[in-house]
Amino acid sequence: MSKVKLTLVKSFAKRSPAQRATLTALGFKKTYQVVEKQTSPSVDGMIAKVMHLLKVESI
């Protein structure tokens, strides 16, 4: 499995509760925070739901 580096580039503010929960589950607490995750079907699904808020780079 490969890893991805995720950067939260837009704020949690004015987002739906589902999107906030997804961002929290991915490990984000603040804007411009960087998180590294192993790719899996569940992580890929979470990334797809909030793709417009993230910058994604494969490692």
What descriptive keywords fit this protein?
single chain, alpha+beta, Ribosomal Protein L30, Chain: A, globular
Structural overview:
The protein has 59 residues and is α+β, with helices and mostly antiparallel strands. The chain has a single domain, classed as Ribosomal Protein L30, Chain: A (2-Layer Sandwich). The chain has a three-stranded antiparallel beta sheet with strand order 2-1-3, with no helix packed on it. The longest helix has 10 residues. The mean pLDDT is 96.
Describe the secondary-structure layout.
Layout: E1 3-8, H1 17-26, E2 34-38, H2 41-49, E3 54-58
Helix pairs in contact: 1-2
Q: How far from one another are the termini? A: 11 Å
| CATH architectural grouping | 2-Layer Sandwich
Percentage of residues assigned to helices = 25-40%
What is the alpha-carbon Rg in Å?
Answer: 11 Å
Low-confidence stretches: none
Q: Label the overall shape.
A: globular
* Highest-level CATH class: Alpha Beta
Structure in a nutshell:
With 59 residues, the chain is an alpha+beta fold. The chain has helices at 17-26, 41-49; strands spanning 3-8, 34-38, 54-58.
